[in-house]
Amino acid sequence: MEIIGIIIVAIFVNNVVLAQFLGICPFLGVSKKVDTAIGMGLAVTFVLTIATIVTFLLQKGILEPSGLGYLQTISFILVIAALVQMVEIVLKKISPSLYQALGVFLPLITTNCVILGVAILVIQKDYNLLESVIYAVATAIGYAMALIIFSSIREQLALTRVPKAMKGIPLALITAGIMAMAFMGFSGIDQVFK
After folding, report:
1. Could you tell me the pTM of the whole model?
2. Rounded distance, CA 168 to CA 36, Å?
3. What is the count of structural domains for the chain?
């Protein structure tokens, strides 16, 4: 039951973009077309899951036992950057078609604060490795879901007549705010799983 609670809360109640406001820049920048939103969502899911495992093991296996907890943020950033580069190199060798499909999304993930934020949240919440992986995957699903919904709304809004002052980012921010309010409707559901 606790695992289901982690999943529901990560996807709906504490959605990383709409409730915690992590990853706003790629959320607004990559959300003009559904295809690119799906690509970014898949890339974030893959990297977030692997990065959470590696940073969890680094924290619990090296930093905490050695008393080097103060190096957490910088070491996590280095691990995430190295991991993204490694994934990019491996994909280029093993699956050039997948590498081409992801295109610019892989380098963009290095600067996506969702990855670092989730790695730190997992440590703060004192999850074990299984709970950490489940939380990371659920968070990535919530991120991808919000990104895809937002991009489909933006595609529809691009076809409508909008006052000049509202075009682009102003309308996108209003839309994101309305989505965040809609997701607030899930705020009591986490009590069911406690």
Report:
1. 0.87
2. 17
3. 1
Contact 136, 48 (CB under 8 A): yes
Structure tokens at 114: 């969702």
Query: 90 lies in a domain?
Result: yes
Q: Which string of DSSP letters, residue by residue, matches 161-187? A: ---GGGTTHHHHHHHHHHHHHHHGGGT
Residue 132 lies in a domain: yes
- What pLDDT digit, counting tens, does each position of 68-123 carry? 999 999 999 999 999 888 888 888 888 787 777 777 777 878 888 899 999 999 99
Q: Give the integer Cα–Cα distance in Å for 48 and 53.
A: 9
- Identify the residue whose tokens are 């440590």: 123
As a whole number of angstroms, the distance between CA 118 and CA 10 comes to: 10
Residue 190 lies inside a defined structural domain of this protein: no
Where helices occur in the chain by DSSP H, the ranges are 2-8, 24-29, 34-58, 64-66, 72-94, 96-102, 105-110, 113-124, 129-158, 169-183
Show the tokens assigned to 6. Answer: 């982690």
**Cβ contact 56:129 at 8 Å:** yes
| 46-56 pLDDT tens trace | 889 999 999 99
CB-hemisphere CA count at 13 Å for 15?
24
Structural domain for 19, as ranges? 2-185
**Cβ–Cβ contacts within 10 Å for residue 89, how many?**
11
Instruction: Give domain status of residue 85, yes or no.
Output: yes
CB distance 22 to 113 below 8 Å: yes
Placement of tokens 């008393």 in the chain:
67
